[in-house]
Design brief:
Radius of gyration of chain B: 17 Å
Number of helices of chain A: 3
Number of helices of chain B: 3
Number of strands of chain B: 12
Largest interface: A-B, 36 and 35 residues
Oligomer: heterodimer
Strand order of the largest sheet of chain A: 3-7-8-6-5-4
Largest sheet of chain A: 6 strands, mixed
Shape of chain A: globular
Distance between the termini of chain B: 60 Å
Order of helices and strands of chain A: EEEEEEHEEEEHEEH
Strand content of chain A: 35-45%
Helix content of chain B: under 10%
């Protein structure tokens, strides 16, 4: 009698994540979602203020190459007490630059649990789910959840209007 | 007792919130556990306090005492882990309770139109009339989703 073929064990695959803090609160983000990490000090002079505070959590933009990134205050987005940001995450696949306190560490997660269904408000757009690391539970953020399509549309329209206004002002010598 | 009368009886778990007792259908109860660390993170669902880690599973904590007795519990002795239905799907929720729980088997009087939405029925036990709680009405939740929805299943990360 032939022994039964061994079943392939499906070892959980790991995902690299960055643990970071906003106003002291710990969050995780997939490292693949972060294009670049920069110090806030290094951005001096490269940011542009948005005159209309149409989306209160976005006060500045940063132009990088062909893309304009909207600088999102992590504290304002999550409704946390204001804290001075030390770093900024430039996120992939979304024109978002996220202000954070700092990075705790990089690690791997092997399990991501969907947000329990008792959570039924904006947090469902904020988080991919929850992970347990070293007996701690950490929310894993959704990179595209920092700015909704509606917010991006509003910001784009404000930015377009400001750009159209600038050449007109230059022509009139204002 | 006749067979018909036996069938009409159902088991309930009595829980204590402050000075008052309430009941939940025993078939909805998973276990009674000692309080453990509640992990909190930003969210906008006020009725959810946070989450706990139990046997590798993340469970939300809903303090229902404010809705039922008008104030938050000052002493939490246990968490009653109950299953809550979201459409066809079940998920555990942890309910902080302030005292021992008791399993009883009695006949339930169905709710009437005038009862609050969180009341599933009434029990008479030990001289008290006790509300049977409807956890679906008492705890928050997103609208019903199909049980097969992949997005809401606990998943392993696929890198």
């Amino acid at each position: 009698m032939q022994p039964a073929p061994a079943t392939k064990s499906r070892a959980p695959r790991a995902e690299q994540i960055i643990l970071f803090r906003v106003s002291g609160q710990l969050f995780a983000i997939s490292s693949g979602s972060v294009q670049e990490v920069r110090s806030v000090d290094g951005l001096t002079g490269t940011t542009q203020e948005i005159s209309q505070s149409i989306v209160p959590k976005v006060r500045h933009t940063i132009r990088r190459g062909d893309t304009t990134h909207y600088v999102v205050s992590g504290t304002s987005h999550f409704g946390l007490p204001a804290a001075s940001a030390g770093l900024v995450f430039f996120l992939r696949h979304t024109p978002t630059a996220l202000l954070i306190d700092g990075i705790d560490k990089m690690t791997t997660m092997t399990y991501l649990q969907a947000l329990p269904q008792t959570f039924c408000h904006e947090e469902r757009d904020w988080y991919r789910g929850l992970t347990a690391l070293d007996q701690m539970i950490v929310p894993v953020v959704k990179p595209e959840g920092f700015l909704s399509v509606e917010e991006l549309t509003l910001l784009d329209s404000v930015l377009r209007a400001e750009r159209q206004q600038q050449p007109a002002e230059a022509e009139t010598g204002e | 007792m006749t067979i018909v009368a036996e069938i009409a009886l159902e088991s309930f778990v009595l829980l204590r919130l402050g000075e008052r007792r309430f009941a939940v259908r025993a078939r909805q109860i998973v276990e009674l556990i000692a309080p453990s660390r509640v992990f909190r993170f930003p969210h906008n669902t006020a009725a959810v306090e946070g989450v706990i880690l139990r046997r590798g599973r993340i469970i939300s904590v809903c303090d229902i005492s404010e809705q039922l007795v008008g104030k938050k519990l000052s002493v939490r002795r246990f968490y009653l882990i109950a299953t809550r239905l979201f459409g066809a799907r079940k998920e555990p929720v942890a309910l902080p309770v302030s005292g021992d729980c008791e399993l009883i088997t009695v006949d339930m009087t169905p709710r009437s139109e005038s009862d609050s939405t969180h009341v599933a029925g009434w029990l008479s036990h030990g001289g008290d009339v006790i509300e049977v709680l409807d956890l679906e009405a008492l705890t928050p939740g997103i609208p019903a989703v199909p049980a097969t929805s992949v997005a809401l299943q606990p998943v392993e990360v696929r890198a």
